[in-house]
Amino acid sequence: MLDPKSRTRVRLRKFLSYYKPYRGIFAVDLCFAVLSAVCLLLFPLLSGYITEQVLVQWDEQTARRLLRASFAMLALVVVYTASKVLYAYWGHSMGAKMEGRMREELFAHYESLSFDFFSHTGTGHLMTVLSNDLNGMTELFHHAPEEILITGIKFFGAAVILFRINAPLAAVAFTVFPFLCLVSVRADRRMQRQLMRNKADLSALNTGLEDALSGIRTVKAFGNEAFELAKFRDKNGNYTQSRCRFYRMESTFYDVLSSYPQFLTMLIVVFGALLLGRGQLDIPVLITFLLYSNCLYEPVNAILNFMRLVQEGKASFRRFMDLIETPPQITQREDCVELERCRGEISIEGVSFRYPGRDEAVLDGIDLQIHHGQRIAVVGASGIGKTTLAALIARFYDVSAGSIRLDGVDVRDLSFASMRRSIALVQQEVFIFNASVRDNIRYGKLDASEAEIICAAKLAGAHEFIQALPGGYDAQVGTRGILLSGGQRQRLSLARVFLKNPPVVILDEATSALDYENEQLVRHALDRLMVGRTSIVIAHRLSTIRDADRIVVLSGGRIAESGTHTELMEKRGIYAHLYAMGTDT
Predict the structure, then answer these.
(1) Which residue, 500, 503, 394, is CA-closest to 440?
(2) What secondary structure letter does DSSP report for 357?
(3) What is the layout of strands, in order, in the sheet containing 363-370?
(4) Which of 324, 357, 374 is at the close of a domain?
(5) Strands (DSSP E) found in 437-533
(6) Tens-place pLDDT, residues 118-141
(7) Quick one: 419 and 300 in the same domain?
(8) 361 confidence band (pLDDT: 50, 70, 90)
(9) Domain span including residue 441
(10) What phi, psi does 541 have (nearest 5°)?
(11) Model confidence pLDDT, tens digit, residues 215-254
């Protein structure tokens, strides 16, 4: 665990690393920013030259000098305007590209994280960071270096010139700056804390919204619209109050500091008048001084705008880094094994597992040998660890003790590509993408031909209902496949698996949520799927696994019984009791 200072240094290096691929654009951007700042510094000098020298005495040379000075001022305006346009375009383009890289990096990191992370982290929070938080990073990446550079050049350049014009008056003008710096630092800390609370409230709001909209059918079915509205109103109220507290702090700080230009002008006029009365200053010099005072309070305005960007950017970057620094619990070893042709031999040796943060083991000392082409059923009471065992075989989690081997190789030593290519998991709740039927099936093999897609659909018993859809294979199925029935969604997911053609399939209660007719259709498809493959069936209805080569009964985290249906019924043990009772497990 890094200490706060080390973490700050690490995160600063991370922030600066995003500039590296765009060094050329960044250099050009800063060059134009410097040029615009220099133009602003030169403009009052030309104005002072006109008032102090050109207009002091009108003669035949005055018009010529005035014309030259006017052309020089016009050239400065043109160069200043062009510089601002160019650095605004290049800077914003660079910032957008850097933000895009961050978003892509964060999404890739999401994909690397384990199931346990997603079990404890709301989707709304992840989406808020990916979209809302990173939106402000473009402005921060673009304006942060520019504002620092331009403000520094204008401020220190103006300071040097003002002290050369009149040191006593310049000293008076600069007396306020230490106070401004102190107030700014203290206000920044308070607003940062409030902004982080505000973003947390926004994540909670989005998480609740995502949950309510995803389950809108359940909400309506139970008539709980008012209940969900009350929950949303509560989260929305927290977020609104949080924003109001932040705006109160922000307005108090920024509106007070925004009166600085008027205060500075008052100081210069009052003390300038005193110096005029003593003969230590003349009117043209005072006018030049007032013109340059713009270069003093303009940096203050820039700093105020910059602080807004930094506050938003720091809070967003901190939440981004909190996620990026979350290590994936399941990692691929550098010297991992690439399993080219998997037979489907599975060896489970002394496997124990407990979920992170829990003391009690779900599985304890499981030993099981599964040979190529065997059909193994796993049964037991609800919550006994059947799905956990399937997840461990697919390496969605790592075992706490023991090992699981695929074709003699520990799954922790296999590449992710080998694991995902060799094993397919068919679950009770399938996920259908908001895309066409064709694209949903092709997800099993992204380069599949049309003939392969149709063949997979036929094997899954889906071809007929697909043809009956408006648009056939081009039909859009809606979010989560809402336009399809449960049986159609399940057969569509099976078509993916047929297309993938893995040597090992794990069926996790794949038919338990279907009615009798759809269950029969899906079971026929599953029977075709399991032919010639190593199959692990987590049974919900015990009548569906009577023909399994072996049935494994889990109890108390261990294998309590093992054998064929006939053998287990003769034992009159746990399995026979469950079968007789017709208990859903």
Answers:
(1) 500
(2) T
(3) 363-370, 346-353, 401-406, 409-410
(4) 324
(5) 504-508
(6) 878 877 788 888 887 887 777 778
(7) no
(8) confident
(9) 346-581
(10) -105, 115
(11) 676 676 667 778 888 888 888 888 888 888 877 777 777 6
